[in-house]
Design a protein that fits this description.
heterodimer; A: mainly alpha; MetI-like fold; 2 domains; 15 helices; 0% strand; globular; B: mainly alpha; 14 helices; membrane (chain A); MetI-like_sf (chain A)
Chain lengths: 295, 297
C-alpha cells in the first residue's frame, strides 16, 4: 500500500460525470452482460429446445423457437436402452443418497475432532487430511479396484459408497472444520459444565448449529456424485447396475448421431436434478465455495 | 480459555473415537492404495497372475512410450491454455459485477451454472453435437456465410473444443473472486481516486496485489483439476482419445492401459507419474508465489 501513496501524484478531484452518461454506461454494461449470459446458456437452452424437436429438424434449427412440441424423443429415449431410463435414475439416486449420508456422518465426526478436541498429533493428522484433498483419484484407483474386486464388490454400489462412510472426501472435513471453528466455544463449555460428554456436545450443540455446512456438503455431494463418471464407469460394467452417466454414455455409443433427439431428451432428464439442486441450494453453494476458497 | 482448562484431561480417547472412520478411510482407502500403487508400479500385473516384480521396466517403458509422450503433450497444452483463459474470464467478469449492482445475483447464477453442469456426460454429449460437422456452431457460421468443419473430427481442432468447454466453466472461480473482491475495503479505491489514480492504476496497484492470494488459490486448484480431466475427452472421443490421439488426456491413457488392457502395473506407474507432475506443478506454483503473491498481514 505504501507503493500506492508514492507513485500516484495528487490531482484535483473532478466533478462526477453527468448522470446521463453514467446511465448510458450502465445500460451498455447490462447489454453486454445480458448478451454474455445468453451466449453462456445458449448451448443448454438449445439442447432443451432441440429435445422437443423431430430428429430431422434439429440439424437445421439453430434457433430457440419451437414450431410444435415433439415429445416422442422422451418416450424413445426413455426406452432406448436395456432398462427404462428410470432404472438408471434410481441407481444414481441410491448411490447419491449413500454418499450424502456417508459424508454427513463421517465428515462431521472427523471435523468435530479436528476443530474442538485437544489430542496428540492433531496438527500432524490435520496436515495429512489436507494433503489428501489434493490427491488425484488415479493414484488410488488401481489398488482400490484390485481390493474391491477381491471382495467381490465390482458391479455393486459399495466401492462408490463405502469410501464416503470413511470420511475420504477430505474437502468436506475441511469445510466443516472451518465452520465449527467459527462457532462460539462458550456453548460447548456451558454444555460441558452441565455434564455433557463429547458425544452429546457434538450431537446436541454442534450439529444443530452447523446445519448450513451440512447443507453445503449435501448439495456438493449430490452434484459431484451425480456427475461423477470416472469411478462409476470403472466399477459398474453390468448394464443392470449402470448409473445415469454410464447409461448415457452407452447410449451415445449405441445410437451414434442417428437419434440426437432422444439423446438430448435423456441428457436433459439427467441434468434436471442438478438444475433443481442448484435452484434450491444456490445460497449454500455460493457460500460453500466462497468460504473454503478464502479461509 | 475455559475455567476447566486446568483439570481437563486431553481428549485423546474421544478424539480417536470421533476420528475412527477417518483413520480407517486413511489407511484402507487413501494411504494404503497410494503405497500399494507405488509398489505395483514396479511390477507386471494383469489381475489374473500374481504381480511379478520387474524392477525399473515400467520406467524404461515410459521413457520409450511415444503415445504417453503424446498424451503428456496434449494434457500440458490443455492445462496451460485453458486454465489461464478460464481464470482471466473469471476475474474479468468478477470485476464487472460491481458491488450492489442491479441483477448481480442473476448474473452470478447464470455464469455459475455451467460450472456445475460442465463435468457431466450430458454436456459432453451436447458438445459432440455442437462442434460436429453439422452441429450448432457450424449452423451459426452458415448464417454468416462461413463454412465450418467437423471441429471434433479434425485432429487440429478437437482439443480446442475441450479447452472452450473448460473456459465455459469459469463460474466457480468467478464466485471465489467475487467473494475476494468484497474483502477489499472500498476506502482504498476512494483514496486512490482522490489521488487521481485511473481505473487501470487502481486495478494494478490495489485489486491485483490484494486479490493475489485468491488468484493463487484458484490457479493451484484449477491446475490440479485440469490435469485430472477425463469425462469430456472420454465422451467426445468415444473413449478412444481420438481423432489421431488429439484428445488423449493423460487420465484417458491411464484408463486405457489399466482398465482396457488390464496392465495394472504400468497403470500404477503412470498414476504415480501423474501424482509427481501435479505435485511438481503445485510446488512450482508455491515457489513462484513468493514473487507475486502479496499477503497483507
Amino acid at each position: 500500500m505504501t507503493d500506492l501513496k508514492e507513485r500516484v501524484t495528487p490531482v484535483p478531484i473532478t466533478v462526477e460525470a453527468a448522470p446521463v452518461r453514467r446511465r448510458g454506461r450502465s445500460l451498455a454494461k447490462h447489454a453486454g452482460l445480458g448478451l454474455l449470459t445468453l451466449v453462456m446458456l445458449y448451448p443448454v437452452l438449445w439442447m432443451v429446445v432441440s429435445s422437443l424437436r423431430p430428429n430431422n429438424v434439429i440439424f437445421r434449427s439453430p434457433g430457440l423457437i419451437l414450431d410444435g412440441l415433439e415429445t416422442r424423443n422422451y418416450g424413445e429415449g426413455w426406452n432406448a436402452l436395456a432398462s427404462p431410463f428410470g432404472h438408471y435414475l434410481v441407481n444414481s439416486a441410491i448411490v447419491v443418497l449413500g454418499c450424502i449420508i456417508g459424508n454427513l456422518v463421517s465428515c462431521s465426526m472427523a471435523a468435530y475432532a479436528f476443530a474442538r478436541l485437544d489430542f496428540t498429533g492433531r496438527k500432524l493428522w490435520f496436515a495429512v487430511m489436507l494433503g489428501t484433498i489434493m490427491l488425484p483419484i488415479h493414484v488410488l484407483i488401481v489398488p482400490q479396484y484390485i481390493a474391491f474386486s477381491n471382495l467381490g464388490w465390482i458391479n455393486t454400489f459399495l466401492p462408490l459408497i463405502v469410501p464416503k462412510l470413511l470420511a475420504t472426501d477430505a474437502f468436506f472435513v475441511f469445510l466443516m472444520v472451518q465452520f465449527i471453528r467459527g462457532l462460539p466455544k462458550e456453548l460447548d463449555e456451558a454444555a460441558r459444565i452441565d455434564g455433557a460428554g463429547h458425544p452429546r456436545i457434538f450431537a446436541q450443540v454442534i450439529l444443530p448449529l452447523m446445519l448450513p455446512a451440512l447443507a453445503t456438503t449435501t448439495i456438493f455431494t449430490f452434484i459431484w456424485t451425480w456427475n461423477d463418471f470416472f469411478s462409476q464407469l470403472i466399477y459398474l460394467t453390468d448394464p443392470d447396475m449402470y448409473t445415469v452417466p454410464v447409461a448415457l454414455r452407452s447410449f451415445v455409443d449405441a445410437t451414434v448421431s442417428t437419434s440426437w433427439g432422444s439423446m438430448f431428451a435423456m441428457s436433459v432428464v439427467s441434468l434436471l436434478p442438478i438444475f433443481l439442486a442448484f435452484l434450491i441450494g444456490q445460497r449454500y453453494l455460493v457460500k460453500g465455495i466462497a468460504t473454503t476458497g478464502i479461509k | 480459555m475455559s475455567a476447566l482448562g486446568f483439570v481437563r484431561k486431553r481428549d485423546d480417547k474421544a478424539a480417536y473415537l470421533f476420528l475412527l472412520p477417518w483413520f480407517a478411510g486413511l489407511v484402507l482407502i487413501t494411504a494404503g492404495p497410494v503405497a500399494a500403487s507405488f509398489v505395483l508400479g514396479f511390477t507386471d500385473y494383469n489381475l489374473i497372475q500374481p504381480p511379478r516384480f520387474n524392477g525399473l521396466e515400467n520406467v524404461t517403458r515410459m521413457l520409450g512410450d511415444d503415445r504417453l509422450h503424446h498424451a503428456l503433450g496434449v494434457t500440458f497444452t490443455y492445462v496451460l491454455i485453458s486454465v489461464p483463459l478460464q481464470l482471466a474470464a473469471a476475474l474479468g467478469l468478477a470485476m464487472l459485477l460491481d458491488r450492489g449492482m442491479r441483477g448481480l445475483a442473476f448474473y452470478r447464477s447464470a455464469f455459475y451454472l455451467p460450472s456445475l453442469l460442465g463435468s457431466s456426460v450430458a454436456i459432453a454429449v451436447l458438445w459432440r453435437q455442437i462442434f460436429g460437422a453439422e452441429g450448432l456452431f457450424n449452423q451459426f457460421l452458415n448464417l454468416f456465410g462461413l463454412t465450418g468443419r467437423g471441429w471434433i473430427s479434425d485432429p487440429d481442432t478437437a482439443l480446442s473444443t475441450l479447452i472452450v468447454l473448460n473456459v465455459w466453466t469459469f463460474g466457480a472461480p468467478m464466485v471465489i473472486f467475487l467473494a475476494g473482491l468484497r474483502q477489499i475495503p472500498v476506502m482504498y479505491y476512494e483514496a486512490a481516486q482522490v489521488d487521481g489514480a485511473g481505473k487501470f492504476t487502481q486495478f494494478r496497484r490495489i485489486t491485483l496485489p490484494l486479490l493475489s492470494p485468491i488468484i493463487f488459490f484458484n490457479l493451484v486448484l484449477q491446475i490440479i483439476h485440469a490435469f485430472q480431466s477425463f469425462t469430456q475427452a472420454f465422451v467426445v472421443s468415444g473413449g478412444t482419445g481420438g481423432p489421431s490421439d488429439s484428445t488423449m488426456f493423460y487420465t484417458l491413457y491411464l484408463y486405457q492401459r489399466g482398465f482396457h488392457n488390464f496392465d495394472m502395473g504400468y497403470a500404477s506407474a503412470l498414476a504415480w507419474l501423474l501424482l509427481i507432475i501435479i505435485a511438481a506443478f503445485t510446488a512450482l506454483n508455491f515457489w513462484a508465489a513468493k514473487k507475486w503473491v502479496f499477503y497483507d498481514d
